[in-house]
Recover the amino acids of this structure.
């Protein structure tokens, strides 16, 4: 195992001063549920680890003027159990609950969920983030049952592993990214990016930045997440859909529909969103929206079934949101 | 000669009782130490360098950098230049070092040159296998063409069941210390008696040099009989490191890649029947792979062996993948899947309840009455009559319920087993045999038999197993352990009692054959007043220790154990036809296993078998990448096993009946794990109205079948 420096700062200021300028040099350790396995597989070989678990500034869930602030080191379990979140953002509580191992929910953090690396088995087996051999992607002609059905024109075919990302995007949340020279707020929607080469990342975070908090605006929405995975116990989702509906009576004034695990980033289904404005959610409207959400899907050789699953997820999420049972 | 027969059912005090397993608390609290828990002072760690290519020739190997690494004590080349490697994950070199981390670093420093050769890793499409497929040749019984042309109904179908691994939670491995003439070998093994000899043979040493010890094993399922290359390499690394113990357990990736698989099985099947369901013809063209050596030939048609007209052919396909090992009822899970799916499809075509079809054809099996009764019992426990509907006739709404069934058979019998019963003058008792408890409850069973025979409580027995200095017992395979160890223990304890009777007869004023051991006493038969307490009786031995042997007689088991059991399994599932997700609702498993020593443990065995079968039906498969030849899911996240929430209700029914009891003891490990995927696949077909040809029944396959794309 490559020896590494281990730092346990006590303030965000100290923490960001420890970060590097190049990916791969310094890794941030929170719950460690992903990072430790990456290190064991030598997919991550940092020369320094910055442990942020002890940073009080990164904890807590509190309501403020700008909305609900969630510290990046809040665990998935804390998130799922928080009364305010269960009441106003059931889509987020459901997304956290979908992380199907209590051990991961107890250790894993909100920031970690957004920053985790893809589960793509080509990546995890050492064929690189883009799963290529001799310069050619192994995925379109290979084992792609769990891969992307949208945004998959290459070179990235993996799916974003984030469970919370779709719900946060639908709720219009922002993340705060702090570096030694200042901080910036980025919409969660812009936080996820599709890498164009092996050297780039699937998030907009820079190597010298730390994700410190998430803020969800106070807008009242009917929101829900519907996730499909084969097993009840520890399993990765096949697809998920998070929706947030602004309503006037029973009419949707504006809608956000965001799919998870279908593309290299969480996927905003703008056609479905546009279609829903001005409508009441009925079974047939939900079905139509589901169809629209997947209209541009381009499944690979083994994953056409995910198009159907994603349609079902959108439909069921919409019906759940409208009926208030997320 | 002494009478070794089992006491009559109504007279048993401990055998037949629902006793808790003796090591349950130790296991659940972590006090039980598994082979992989063993650590020794100064212990080194062994690690393999494995081949990343599915087929390659080693052209060069340079270990110099690894040898120079601080903390490395030995580096050994396994695949010398020129060696042709036939599957990814094959062992190329091994290293011992002062820590696992250093050993892994050292492995990475070894430079190997490969000439990469063409490979074949997939066998599901036999037309692509070319010369890699070797047909066994046709076997024909009766006149199949005539049977098909005269049949009222025929059905043709394709079915497939993939390669899966054993996925033992405790991976394969051991600690070995080779010091001077002596080797201390602590493997995770199903074969404490024989594995030392296997290691010795590989090292060209006498078997007497190897001392084997194992207390607990974390799963074997047929994959842990041999010393294996990792055992041999650990020994060599120990020797090369000055005799320090070397611990080497495979990491999960290697475990799932090279430590054994269950062969796949695919078949095109045609069956025919009369209008009333009587089967008249069977034709199957099957193929399978179990790795480079081919392997796996399911016995078809399964259980309904006497279908009058048959034509069969089977091809073994050699692939560049890790090799086959026995997997809990070798070939049977595949055979019942291929057979029962075809029969269920035939029943659906006849619009006939498959229970009726199975009962109708019970005469084509070796044990018609047993199966008819089991069908009745299982139907009752499932409430089949009320719940079953015609295929696909499952009402409105996206979620459909369905029922399915399948059939099982297994041999069993008792393996070679010798037991020594020692009675000490203070009344203490040692029961000694070199068996192993695979987690099935063997410790508990042996103790029940010994205590029952000696008329003492379970706590009076000091049981010693898991050490090859003890009297030999066979490997735990083929569901033969319970039959073997119960028989040898019964005989050893009766022989020891005879010696005790001889020592105390005079003081009780009776003849030796007039005595019995009851309730902690040695007494004149039927006369509790003419008795000595156990302790007082043993004191009569003076300084003499009784040490008597007993052996299972495999040729003439004398009614103590038997062979041949059957089982009927029924599954109830719920399928979401919008998502293709299958949920288990209820599973009924009815099994006979002769005389049941401990119904609680027997049911526990069935639970384990059913859970394993649910994994194999719904989620489990080894996924290989055609281009790279690598196993992509050699981990515990995408090699999917069911968890508690995925299992549903399990009703395990062990038939405790006089007609079974009189046959003697028969093992249950294998028969309980056979018919599960077939029953579940049939339940899904019943629920959704179409056959999903291949398992596991993942959402993609279920949705494809619903859309009419069955592949």
């Amino acid at each position: 195992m490559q020896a590494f420096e281990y730092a346990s700062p006590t303030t965000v200021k100290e923490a960001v001063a420890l970060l590097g300028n190049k990916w791969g040099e310094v890794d941030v350790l929170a719950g460690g549920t992903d990072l430790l396995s990456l290190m064991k597989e030598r997919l991550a070989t940092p020369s320094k680890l910055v442990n942020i678990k002890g940073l009080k500034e990164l904890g807590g869930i509190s309501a403020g003027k700008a909305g609900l602030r969630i510290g990046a080191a809040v665990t998935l379990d804390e998130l799922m159990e928080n009364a305010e979140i269960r009441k106003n953002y059931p889509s987020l509580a459901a997304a956290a609950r979908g992380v199907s191992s209590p051990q991961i929910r107890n250790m894993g953090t909100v920031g970690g969920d957004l920053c985790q690396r893809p589960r793509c088995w080509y990546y995890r087996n050492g064929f690189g983030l883009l799963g290529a051999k001799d310069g050619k992607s192994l995925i379109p002609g290979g084992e792609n049952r769990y891969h992307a059905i949208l945004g998959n024109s290459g070179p990235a075919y993996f799916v974003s592993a984030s469970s919370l990302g779709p719900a946060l995007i639908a709720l219009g949340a922002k993340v705060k990214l702090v570096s030694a020279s200042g901080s910036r707020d980025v919409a969660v929607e812009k936080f996820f990016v599709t890498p164009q080469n092996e050297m780039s990342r699937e998030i907009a975070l820079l190597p010298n930045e730390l994700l410190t908090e998430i803020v969800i605006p106070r807008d009242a929405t009917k929101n829900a997440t519907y996730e499909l995975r084969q097993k009840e116990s520890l399993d990765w989702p096949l697809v998920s859909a998070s929706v947030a509906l602004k309503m006037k009576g029973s009419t949707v004034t504006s809608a956000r529909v965001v799919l998870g695990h279908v593309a290299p980033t969480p996927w905003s289904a703008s056609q479905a969103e546009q279609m829903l404005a001005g409508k009441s959610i009925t079974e047939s409207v939900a079905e139509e929206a589901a169809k629209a959400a997947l209209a541009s899907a381009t499944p690979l050789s083994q994953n056409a079934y995910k198009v159907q699953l994603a349609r079902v997820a959108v439909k069921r999420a919409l019906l759940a949101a409208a009926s208030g049972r997320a | 000669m002494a009478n070794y027969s089992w006491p009559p059912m109504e007279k048993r005090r401990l055998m037949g009782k629902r006793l808790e397993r003796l090591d349950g608390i130790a296991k659940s609290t972590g006090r039980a130490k598994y082979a992989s828990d063993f650590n020794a002072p100064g212990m080194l760690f062994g690690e393999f360098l494995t081949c990343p290519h599915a087929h390659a020739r080693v052209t060069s190997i340079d270990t110099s950098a690894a040898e120079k690494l601080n903390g490395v004590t030995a580096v050994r080349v396994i695949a010398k230049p020129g060696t042709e490697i036939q599957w990814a994950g094959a062992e190329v070199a091994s290293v011992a070092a002062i820590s696992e981390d250093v050993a892994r670093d050292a492995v990475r420093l070894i430079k190997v040159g490969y000439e990469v050769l063409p490979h074949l890793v997939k066998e599901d499409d036999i037309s692509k296998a070319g010369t890699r497929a070797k047909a066994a040749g046709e076997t024909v019984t009766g006149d199949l063409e005539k049977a098909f042309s005269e049949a009222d109904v025929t059905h043709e179908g394709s079915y497939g069941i993939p390669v899966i691994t054993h996925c033992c939670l405790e991976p394969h491995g051991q600690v070995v210390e080779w010091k001077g003439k002596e080797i201390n070998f602590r493997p995770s093994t199903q074969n404490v008696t024989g594995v030392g000899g296997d290691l010795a043979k590989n090292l060209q040493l006498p078997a007497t040099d190897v001392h084997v010890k194992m207390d607990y094993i974390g799963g074997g399922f047929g994959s842990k009989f041999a010393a294996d290359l990792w055992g041999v390499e650990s020994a060599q690394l120990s020797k090369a490191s000055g005799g320090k113990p070397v611990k080497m357990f495979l990491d999960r990736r290697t475990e799932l890649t090279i430590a054994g698989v269950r062969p796949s099985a695919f078949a095109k099947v045609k069956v025919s029947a009369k209008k009333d369901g009587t089967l008249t013809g069977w034709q199957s063209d099957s193929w399978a792979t179990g790795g480079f050596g081919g392997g796996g030939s399911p016995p078809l048609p399964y259980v309904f062996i006497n279908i009058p007209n048959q034509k069969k052919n089977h091809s073994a396909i050699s692939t560049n993948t890790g090799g086959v090992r026995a997997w809990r009822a070798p070939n049977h899970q595949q055979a019942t899947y291929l057979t029962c799916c075809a029969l269920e499809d035939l029943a659906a075509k006849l619009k006939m309840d498959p229970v009726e079809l199975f009962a109708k054809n019970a005469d084509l099996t070796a044990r018609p009455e047993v199966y008819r009764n089991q069908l009745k019992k299982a139907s009752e426990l499932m409430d089949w009559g009320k719940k079953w509907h015609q295929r696909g006739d499952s009402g409105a709404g996206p979620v459909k319920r369905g029922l399915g069934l399948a059939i099982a058979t297994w041999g069993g019998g008792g393996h070679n087993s010798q037991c020594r019963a020692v009675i000490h003058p203070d009344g203490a008792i040692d029961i000694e045999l070199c068996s192993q408890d695979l987690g099935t409850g063997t410790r508990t069973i042996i103790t029940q038999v010994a205590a029952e025979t000696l008329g003492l409580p379970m706590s009076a027995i000091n049981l010693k197993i898991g050490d090859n200095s003890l009297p030999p017992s066979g490997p735990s395979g083929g569901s033969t352990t319970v039959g073997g160890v119960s028989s040898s223990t019964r005989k050893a304890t009766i022989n020891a009692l005879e010696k005790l009777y001889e020592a105390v007869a005079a003081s009780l004023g009776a003849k030796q054959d007039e005595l019995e051991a009851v309730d902690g006493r040695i007494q004149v038969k039927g006369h509790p007043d003419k008795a000595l307490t156990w302790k007082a009786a043993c004191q009569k031995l003076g300084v003499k220790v009784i040490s008597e042997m007993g052996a299972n007689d495999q040729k003439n088991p004398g009614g103590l154990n038997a062979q041949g059991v059957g089982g009927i399994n029924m599954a109830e599932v719920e399928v979401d036809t919008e998502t293709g997700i299958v949920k288990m609702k209820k599973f009924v498993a009815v099994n006979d296993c002769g005389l049941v020593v401990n119904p609680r443990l027997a049911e526990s065995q069935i639970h384990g078998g059913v859970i394993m079968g649910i994994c194999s039906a719904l989620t489990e498969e080894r996924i290989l990448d055609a281009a790279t030849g690598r196993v992509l899911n050699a981990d515990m996240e995408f090699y999917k096993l069911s968890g508690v929430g995925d299992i549903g209700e399990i009703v395990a029914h062990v038939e405790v009946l006089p007609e079974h009891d009189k046959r003697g003891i028969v093992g249950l490990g294998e028969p309980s794990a056979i018919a599960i995927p077939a029953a579940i696949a049939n339940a899904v077909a019943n629920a959704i109205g179409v056959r999903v040809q291949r398992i596991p029944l993942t959402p993609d396959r279920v949705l494809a079948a619903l859309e009419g794309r069955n592949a």
Notes: The longest helix of chain A spans residues 305-323.
